[in-house]
């Protein structure tokens, strides 16, 4: 079988953060499949067909990619960041498990990328330097009650927390409720970082406290990090540094 499928991460935005492994896969591909803005990050060239689709068509997109690979195409499915973090790798495997039995014989690989979470952490220092958790605040695929439960338990365990998809235009109230819950569980002085469009020309980094945080500080291009009790801020000329020590009391 000559076709293959590679599920890759394009990193948070800058071309410099795309790994050489992913670059090589894109150069060898006959087809690129993904959400339109991510497909548009792949430069057109002779011999490459780009298949862009809507944001909420993940399973259909995965099925299309698997079928093209079965037919002999060299297919790359693109995600931003890392494909295994709230992205297309899980969607492809969901489609694989439920779909055509022939798809299971395909050569399928997941090629990691630099996640928005790690890029955002690096932009301010090392706030994820000790135990942390990562939560998707979108309630499109899970109920809000489950999100709230996980937030409370993460705060109780004193994890640093990284939040994806904090605040959409369709559901702005969710992040306001998140901030209220965190102020109650963590206290007003806990550090919070708003990292928007990291590694792009629109990058904006803001370090503040839960007491000063406002819902409008986040949108869907923002990665939010809330520190643990141990997380520290180092004041200096210019932007401060934030880190969480490697040990805990």
Automatic annotation (TrEMBL):
Looking up Pfam families in the UniProt record yields: TP_methylase (PF00590)
Q: Which InterPro entries match?
A: 4pyrrol_Mease, 4pyrrol_Methylase_sf, 4pyrrole_Mease_sub1, 4pyrrole_Mease_sub2, Cbl_synth_CobJ/CibH_dom, Precorrin_MeTrfase
Q: Which organism is it from?
A: Vreelandella boliviensis LC1
Biological process according to GO: cobalamin biosynthetic process; methylation
UniProt-listed PANTHER family: COBALT-FACTOR III C(17)-METHYLTRANSFERASE-RELATED
Question: According to its UniProt record, in which pathway does this protein act?
Answer: Cofactor biosynthesis; adenosylcobalamin biosynthesis
Domain annotation Tetrapyrrole methylase: ranges: 7-213
Provide this UniProt record's keywords sorted from A to Z: Cobalamin biosynthesis, Methyltransferase, S-adenosyl-L-methionine, Transferase
Q: Which GO terms describe its molecular function?
A: methyltransferase activity
- Source gene? cobJ
Listed name of the protein: Precorrin-3B C(17)-methyltransferase
Q: Does the UniProt entry include the keyword Methyltransferase?
A: yes
Q: Does the keyword Lipid metabolism apply?
A: no
């Amino acid at each position: 079988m000559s076709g293959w499928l590679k599920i890759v991460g394009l990193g948070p935005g800058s071309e410099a953060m795309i790994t050489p492994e992913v670059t090589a896969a894109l150069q060898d591909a006959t087809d690129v499949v993904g959400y339109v803005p991510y497909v548009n990050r792949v430069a057109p060239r002779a011999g490459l067909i780009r298949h862009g689709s809507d944001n909420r068509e993940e399973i259909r997109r995965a099925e299309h990619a698997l079928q093209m690979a079965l037919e002999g195409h060299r297919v790359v499915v693109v995600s931003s960041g890392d494909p295994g973090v709230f992205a297309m790798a899980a969607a492809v495997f969901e489609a694989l498990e439920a779909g055509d039995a022939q798809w299971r014989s395909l050569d399928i690989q997941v090629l990691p990328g630099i996640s928005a979470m790690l890029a955002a952490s690096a932009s301010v220092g090392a706030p994820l330097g000790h135990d942390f958790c990562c939560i998707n605040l979108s309630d499109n695929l899970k109920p809000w009650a489950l999100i709230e439960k996980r937030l409370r338990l993460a705060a109780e365990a004193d994890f640093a927390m990284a939040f994806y998809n904090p605040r959409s235009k369709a559901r702005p109230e969710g992040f306001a409720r998140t901030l209220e819950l965190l102020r109650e569980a963590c206290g007003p002085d806990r550090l919070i970082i708003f990292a928007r469009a990291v590694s792009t020309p629109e990058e904006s980094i803001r370090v503040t406290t839960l007491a000063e945080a406002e819902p409008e500080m986040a949108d869907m291009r923002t990665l939010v990090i809330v520190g643990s009790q141990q997380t520290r801020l180092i004041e200096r000329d210019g932007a401060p540094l934030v880190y969480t020590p490697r040990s805990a009391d």
